[in-house]
Structures are given as structure tokens and as C-alpha cells.
Design goal:
The complex is a heterodimer of chains A (386) and B (397). Chain A is built from four helices and 26 strands. Chain A is mainly β and 386 residues long. Helix content of chain B is 2%, strand content 44%. Classes of the chains: A mainly beta (386), B mainly beta (397).
């Protein structure tokens, strides 16, 4: 892609210096050429003059952000290649569409006709079209414990970094923002695709014994209604706003302060020869992200079976769908002990361990717990004993 | 016909980049690595996805935490500057860095700062772009505030991949068992770098240890750390900042949790896979958390300085952090106090007079360097604070 030419013309007479000058204009005047490739990598060439060494190439050829750089303007960093006939500059980073740049060649003051060549460079930005939307907010239930620890917001497209704090808020039933309910983290907790953001409720307001909890209580109070609001000005990775704002309404219920255990998880076995899921039915909702990461299936041979892991029924069910049909035999569903319920209790310990309570369960010994599932031909057989 | 201008275009020896310039190696030989200790690095282009937490080893290797890449990179930045940077005071650092990176200040994020142990140049980890096409950048701020971009092409480097937390069974074919952890702190102690992070699903603390040099089979330690505080509840919590501390020939890690104890762990107590309970020596108090910490000696006293979200730097003074009284179930002075956990508890501490500090690193014997946004003008500075980190060095607004 050739970018428009806007150089100040310099009328310079020429003399023969060597073979490399063929690319230069016939009158031998120095020329500033700019090319921008399809991914906006720029190459800026000053050619047609004789090139000699000085101490700082930036004083000869430089690229600047903006339309009117001065000598004091900070130049864009990049690489220089030098020959007897040309200076070639390539910025380290691609040009940003919608940003104006100016390339400047300063012809040395000691020469007979000093001067400056400039060239404006502009890559038009494509129009912003709102395409991204909130695909889901987890937990999906409309009743959530007052000691809820996390929300997950899933977007349909990758999102921009650094904007979350201004675009997501927890509102009370009168529509007022509950201040300091959500934890401001230094780094936003995106997944790798930048489509899922984790929002923590301020644990200082959830943990018992801390002054914010004692004076303000948990951010959520059982029996009250709330909305998590995601406003449409939140930008996606291309800079476009969301198609629409999104709200998740819910009622807070009493806190979950009992241990999480798989003892009461019930497994339903599919029939051999099918790709129906193994279904785990749970008495309390589970953190969907951890369920999708920490649940595995080992097959009759002891090898791990590739399964898709999805939560259903407001995260009270985990479905394990094989890629290929099940064969009959004994399987084991393995559950990582770090799996958490909605209040951050995992299989090893409660979110808040009350040291004064001798019955408080902490188990740091077992990292994995398991449920046996027998898959047979024809009829479904369930066994859910951990 | 062959022509040339009478005009001579003067260009030449490039002093643009402290680590050499791509494509000009034949003309501008790269400086030799200082010392043979970095021979375990291999030249190439590190596949850093994002440049986050930064720290240097004592011999000048830059360690870069890459959260989305779940890795730590060791880079030989070949900083062979003969002039030691004696002062840093750059007004509008974000504007200048953005200009150098060819974009606007609103389109970059400066994630962390670290000071080269020999040249005292300040290195910045930067996100160049915040959406699609975001790229990592390492920027060097040297004498007279000169800003250079460290070329990540053909640079001696090594990469240590942080293992995922233990998951049952084997990895699926599609490998979708990753827990993304934002790296919140790195500290080099006793030949290893310790790395803390905050997970985007699991609410806990895990400490990883990577020995230096990195080996092909990266040795890391999964370590669960707990703090006992809040009078009677033992809680798990993500770590928001990490630093090292040494006294009497013994090395320690100082760990700051999101809510909000400061705890200390002896490095030699950290065994692989162990559950270790640190000693809580202070509470930052509700409504804040640490973003960076440094320990230093100044005029015969020892300090731990903590930059925070929401407050100015908190400076704790201790003859010896390791002998500081533990804040425990029965020894937490906040218990029953009218201010309770609103307040900072533990060691004697003072607040610096410079609010708005986002990141801090040790600069030299008398100063720390900070990235801070002034309350008065909102301008972002990279500048020094005089130890014991009460006020700024040089002209202020």
C-alpha cells in the first residue's frame, strides 16, 4: 500500500556517485518514500542523496505521531538500515489506523541547500460497528448466596483491556450503585481469548471478623434484589461498543458456610455405544469455570477420556460428553479438590475457616476425589458412590 | 544515468537502542553480554504475549512475567551503559513512551517498573495497544530521561513456562485445562525467582519457584500459603505483591495479600507442595491492597515500603522483620479497637507524602523510583522518592 506523497520539493542539482542511485529520481533529489504493508508495518526510505555517517540517525530521518512535530518531539522507535545511498527506517510496531503520523527527513545544515522533507502518513480506521454482546453471566441462577465470591461475564467477541471498572456495577433494588462491592484488581482477570472476565466481590466485605464486613455487612444481603449492570459503552478489542447493555437480576439468599463435598453428588451413566453425557447432579451450584477445568474422566484402561465438560441446570449439573461413543466398562470421574461452590468453599476447606470450630473441615491431603461410573450396554446404570 | 545529489545526507552509527538494532547487526555489532553467566540463554525472539511484572537478577537479567503466556522470560538486555543513571525525573512518561511506540497515551498501559542493578536505568513493561493487535514492549529510561525501546528481536533469552495448577488425570487433547493467572509479583532469592499470581477462577494463593538458570524441565514449586489473621479465621487469598528480605544470612519472602495482611516466610521452609503458614507481621487495613513492595536499609534502619491502591506508600520500620511480633488470633491489636481493621496494624509505619504512586522499585542507596500520577495535574511521572520514602526528590508540582 502506497501512502500519499506530500513532500516539500527540494530543487537540488545532482552529481554522479554510483550504481545504487538508480532508484532515485532522475534529477537526483533526495526523496522520501513510505510504504505500508497490509498489517500496517511501515517502511520509510530516504534515498537519492549521498549518505554519510553522523552520530544520530534520528536527526536525519524520523517518524512522529501527530501532524506538526518539532525538534523536541519524541520520535517513534524502530530500526535503521544504512547504505551509501539510502536510509531505511522501520518502526518496531505497526501503525495504528486512525492516528496521524509524519515522517521527516532533515537535510544536514552543513550542505549547500539544507531543508526538510516531510510526508504525512495516515491509515484510515475502519468504521466501528457494534458487534460484541454479553453472551452469559455466571452464575446463571436468579438466586445467589449473599457470600457469593465471583461473577463471570462472557462476551461474544474479544474485549479491550483496562475498561472493566467503569462499565460494570452492582446495583441495589433502588437502582443505586453499591460502592466498593466489586474488588478493584490491579490486573483484569480475562481468560486467554479475552472473552471471559472474572469479577470478584470484595472479599474484605465477605470475610467475617473484618471491619468492613462487621459494619457494612457483605455486599449482598439475603432477601434483597440486585442487578449486575454491564453498560454498552464497554469497548471490544476493535474499539467498538457493545450492541446493548446487559443486566443480570437476582435475589440474594442466605450464605453458604458448610463444607463442599462430593458425597452427595449423583452420577447418571449413559449407555455404551452412545455419546450421551455422564451427568453429575449436585445439590448446590458449582463454579462453572472450575467445573470445566477440574473434572476429568478416566476410562476402563485408566487413560483419560477426552470429554467436553459443561455445566447445566443453573450449575447444579455437570455434563461430560465424550468425543467418541462410550465403550462398556468402569469409569472414574475425577474432581480436583480446588473446585469451588459459589462462595469459594472447595473440597479441602471452607472459604473462611473458623479456627475456633474444631469441626471445621480442612483437608489438604487429597488433591483429587473421584466418583465411579459403570457404563454398560443397553440400559442405564447409575452409581454415584464417591 | 547515475546521479546523486551534491547534498550529503548525514546518518550513521546508531546509538538508538541499548540492545542493538534489528537488521543492522552487520554494521553495528551487538555489545557482548557482560560476563559469561548468561551463556545459558539463546538468541532469538521471545514469544512474550504480554509484558507484566518485572524484576532484575543481581547480575542484570531482566525477568518478565507474561500472564497470558503463563510464563516468565529471562532477557539479557545487554545494558552496557558506561554511565550510571544518577537521577530520574520524567514528566508525562506515558505520553513520551506512547510517542516512542508510535501511538497515543490512551492506547498503552505501563504495567511495571524495574531498575537495572548496574546502570540504574529504569525498565518499563508496557502494553502497546489495549485491544486487538496489542503487543508487549520493554522500554528503557536512561540518563537525562532518554527513552529507548528494547528490541525483542535476536535477543538472548530463556523462557520458563509456569505449570498449571494440579488437575486430576491427564490433559485433554484440546488442552483446555488452563487456569489463567495474572502474575502479581516476582522476587529473586537464593538462585530462584518466586512468582505469585491471582487466578481467574480459583480463589487462592500459589507460589511458584523457578530456579535460575532455567532448566529445560522447569523446576517449579506448587506451594499453598495461608495466613492466620482476622482474629479467628484462616483464609485463603490471592497475593497482590511480593518481595524478598534477607537478614542474618537467611532469605525470606514478604507477601502481601489482597485483604490485607503482610506475611513473612523463610525461604528454607518452603518445600514443594507443602502447606505453609506465614507469620502475619502487619495488616494494611481494609479498603486497600499492595501493588509493589521493596525492602531496604537506610541510615542504619531497615524498612519495608508498600505501594498501595488507594493510599500513599506505607513505610514500615523494623529492626528485623523476622522478629516482629506475629498478629495472631490472640495478639491482634485491632481486636476490640474502635478502628478495628480500618487501620494499619503491626509494625510502626508512616505514610509517604506523595499520593498516587502506582508502582515502586528500589533505585539506589538513597532513593526509590516510582510511577505516580499527581493529584494536582493528573500527569504521570517516573521519578524518585528520597528514602526513607517520605517525599519526592527534585522539583514537584
Amino acid at each position: 500500500m502506497r501512502v500519499g506523497f506530500g513532500a516539500i520539493a527540494l530543487c537540488l542539482s545532482a552529481s554522479v556517485i554510483g550504481a545504487g542511485v538508480r532508484q532515485a529520481r532522475a534529477d537526483g533529489s533526495p526523496e522520501l518514500r513510505v510504504t505500508v504493508d497490509s498489517v500496517h508495518g511501515a517502511t520509510i526510505v530516504l534515498a537519492g542523496g549521498r549518505v554519510r555517517a553522523t552520530s544520530d540517525a534520528e536527526n536525519v530521518l524520523a517518524l512522529y505521531v501527530g501532524s506538526a512535530p518539532s525538534r523536541n518531539t519524541t520520535a517513534v522507535a524502530g530500526t535503521y538500515e544504512l547504505s551509501d545511498t539510502a536510509v531505511v527506517f522501520r518502526p518496531y510496531f505497526a501503525l495504528v489506523p486512525g492516528v496521524e503520523y509524519t515522517a521527516v527527513a532533515r537535510i544536514d545544515a552543513e550542505s549547500t541547500q539544507p531543508g526538510t522533507l516531510t510526508k504525512r502518513i495516515f491509515v484510515p480506521a475502519p468504521p466501528l460497528v457494534a458487534q460484541a454482546s454479553v453472551a452469559a453471566v455466571y452464575p446463571t441462577a436468579d438466586t445467589l448466596p449473599e457470600n457469593l465470591l465471583k461473577f463471570y461475564i462472557h462476551f461474544s467477541r474479544p474485549m479491550r483491556d483496562g475498561d472493566a471498572a467503569t462499565h460494570v456495577a452492582l446495583l441495589d433494588e433502588d437502582g443505586h450503585v453499591i460502592s466498593n462491592a466489586l474488588l478493584g484488581t490491579d490486573t483484569e482477570l480475562w481468560d486467554r481469548s479475552h472473552r471471559r472476565l472474572t469479577i470478584l466481590l470484595d472479599p474484605g466485605r465477605i470475610k467475617r471478623g473484618l471491619r468492613p464486613n462487621q459494619e457494612f455487612g457483605a455486599p449482598l444481603v439475603a432477601g434483597r434484589r440486585y442487578r449486575l449492570r454491564i453498560d454498552s459503552a464497554w469497548r471490544d478489542a476493535d474499539g467498538a461498543p457493545l450492541v446493548a447493555s446487559h443486566e443480570k437480576s437476582f435475589i440474594a439468599s442466605s450464605a453458604i458456610r458448610s463444607s463442599l463435598s462430593i458425597a452427595d453428588w449423583r452420577a447418571t451413566a449413559p449407555t455404551a455405544g452412545t455419546t450421551d453425557p455422564i451427568e453429575l447432579r449436585l445439590p448446590r451450584p458449582i463454579d462453572h469455570a472450575l467445573a470445566e477445568r477440574l473434572v476429568r474422566v478416566d476410562g476402563p484402561s485408566g487413560l483419560t477420556i477426552a470429554v467436553a465438560r459443561r455445566t447445566a441446570d443453573k450449575e447444579r449439573m455437570i455434563r461430560l460428553v465424550p468425543r467418541v461413543p462410550w465403550i462398556a466398562g468402569r469409569y472414574r470421574v475425577l474432581i480436583g479438590a480446588q473446585i469451588e461452590d459459589l462462595a469459594g468453599n472447595n473440597l479441602q476447606r471452607l472459604f473462611d475457616v473458623d479456627l475456633a470450630d474444631p469441626a471445621a473441615r480442612t483437608r489438604d491431603d487429597a488433591n483429587v476425589e473421584s466418583i465411579r461410573v459403570e457404563i454398560v450396554a443397553r440400559r442405564n446404570t447409575a452409581s454415584g458412590r464417591p | 544515468m547515475q546521479y546523486a545529489s551534491r547534498l550529503a545526507v548525514l546518518v550513521g552509527a546508531l546509538a538508538l537502542d541499548p540492545v542493538g538494532v534489528r537488521g543492522t547487526a552487520s554494521r553495528t555489532p551487538l555489545p557482548e553480554s557482560p560476563g559469561a553467566s548468561h551463556a545459558w540463554l539463546r538468541a532469538g525472539t521471545p514469544d512474550i504475549k504480554a509484558a507484566g511484572a518485572l524484576t532484575f537478577t543481581a547480575d542484570g537479567l531482566l525477568l518478565v512475567g507474561d500472564s497470558p503466556g503463563s510464563a516468565v522470560f529471562a532477557l539479557d538486555v545487554r545494558d552496557v551503559a558506561t554511565v550510571v543513571v544518577d537521577t530520574i525525573n520524567v514528566k508525562g512518561i506515558d505520553e513520551l513512551v506512547a510517542a516512542r511506540l508510535g501511538t497515543k497515551a490512551s492506547e498503552i498501559a505501563i504495567n511495571d517498573i524495574a531498575v537495572h542493578p548496574k546502570s540504574h536505568a529504569v525498565y518499563l513493561s508496557v502494553a502497546r495497544g489495549l485491544g486487538a493487535g496489542a503487543r508487549p514492549a520493554i522500554v528503557r529510561v536512561g540518563a537525562k530521561g532518554r527513552i529507548d525501546v528494547v528490541s525483542l528481536t535476536n535477543i538472548p533469552f530463556a523462557k520458563a513456562v509456569l505449570p498449571n495448577p494440579p488437575a486430576p488425570g491427564k490433559k485433554d487433547e484440546d488442552g483446555d485445562d488452563v487456569s489463567d493467572r495474572a502474575i502479581t509479583g516476582m522476587a529473586v532469592v537464593g538462585g530462584s525467582v518466586y512468582v505469585t499470581g491471582i487466578s481467574n477462577d480459583e480463589f487462592s494463593s500459589t507460589l511458584r519457584r523457578i530456579s535460575i538458570p532455567f532448566t529445560t524441565a522447569v523446576a517449579t514449586t506448587g506451594l499453598r500459603i495461608y495466613h492466620t489473621h482476622h482474629s479467628r479465621y484462616e483464609t485463603k487469598s490471592p497475593v497482590s505483591a511480593l518481595t524478598s528480605y534477607s537478614v542474618g544470612g537467611r532469605d525470606y519472602l514478604v507477601v502481601s495479600y489482597s485483604c490485607t495482611p503482610l506475611a513473612i516466610f523463610a525461604v528454607d521452609s518452603l518445600a514443594d507442595g507443602a502447606k505453609v503458614t506465614g507469620k502475619t507481621i502487619a495488616e494494611l487495613g481494609a479498603g486497600t491492597h499492595a501493588t509493589s513492595m521493596i525492602t531496604y536499609e537506610f541510615k542504619g534502619k531497615r524498612y519495608l515500603a508498600v505501594s498501595t491502591i488507594g493510599r500513599s506508600i506505607q513505610v514500615l520500620e523494623a529492626t528485623d522483620l523476622t522478629t516482629a511480633p506475629a498478629l495472631g488470633a490472640d495478639s491482634n491489636p485491632s481486636r476490640g479497637h474502635p478502628l478495628g481493621s480500618w487501620f494499619m496494624w503491626g509494625l510502626p509505619a508512616f505514610s509517604s507524602s506523595v499520593p498516587g504512586v502506582m508502582r515502586m522499585a528500589d533505585f539506589d542507596a538513597n532513593n526509590a523510583v516510582v510511577l505516580h500520577r499527581t493529584v494536582q495535574s493528573g500527569v504521570l511521572y517516573l521519578r524518585e522518592l528520597q528514602k526513607p520514602i517520605l517525599w519526592a526528590r527534585g522539583a514537584t508540582e
